[in-house]
Amino acid sequence: MTGPRIASGELNYEGIGSTEHGPPPPDVECLVTRAYVGEGFAAYRRVAQGILSWRLQKGAGLRVRAESEAVVPGTRVVSGFGVGPFRINAPCEVVWVRQPLPGAGPQSAGFGYGTLPGHPVRGEEAFEVEIDGTGRVTIAITAFGAPANWFYATGGVLTKWARSRITSRYIESAHQLAAGES
Fold it and tell me: In the predicted model, what is the mean pLDDT of residues 99-128?
């Protein structure tokens, strides 16, 4: 990476890369959400391309500033969510990437990124699209972590609601990508 980084600091959690190779570190909550998004290799490739170019996040309504148009290991990204002055920036660094394979057959593609200082959580999140032997396309969103500080830890119910809301928006974005609408 040349030029200034868009986010400073280092990855700030245990278990770097666990969303790819597992298991997550002990004593942190890990959530895996899977959803059907379409059928066939065309849908799979559209979702994979959307995931690997930040369109999944943008389609979910996040403001995305990334050091690279493509998702590559080491890229830093700052996603913003919220409204007006109630916007939270969430800086992350890509820790692993899996590209789609050429040809047909069951496979998966996606990436995982980890949190940097300033993110409300310390942990990792991954986005993977999978196609099985029957052509069924699903998205898997895996996230583990803990609140980064006392302020976010006190959020409890609100934090869980926000996490559930953004996950449902990621799934809707994946549906749109699969259908070629995004």
Answer: 93
What's the CATH class of domain 28-178?
A: alpha beta
Confidence of residue 146 (pLDDT cuts 50, 70, 90): confident
- pTM equals 0.91
Indicate the SS3 state at residue 153: helix
> E-assigned strands of the chain?
29-39, 63-66, 76-83, 86-98, 107-115, 121-131, 136-147
Q: Which sequence spans correspond to the domains of the chain?
A: 28-178
Find the mean pLDDT for residues 119-134.
94
**Euclidean distance between CA atoms 94 and 110, whole angstroms:** 11
- pLDDT tens, residue by residue, 6-19: 898 999 999 999 99
Cα separation, 130 vs 134, in Å, equals 11
Average pLDDT (106-112) is 97
83 phi and psi, to 5 degrees?
-130, 135
Cβ atoms 138, 37 nearer than 8 A: yes
- The upper half-sphere exposure of residue 106, i.e. CA atoms within 13 Å in the direction of its Cβ, equals 5
Q: Measure Cα distances from 152 to 5, 6, 118, 160, 179 in Å.
A: 25, 23, 11, 11, 36
> How far apart (Å, rounded) are the C-alpha atoms in residues 111 and 42?
19
Whose tokens are 């990508």? That residue is: 177
Sheet holding 29-39, edge to edge: 29-39, 136-147, 121-131, 107-115, 86-98, 76-83, 63-66
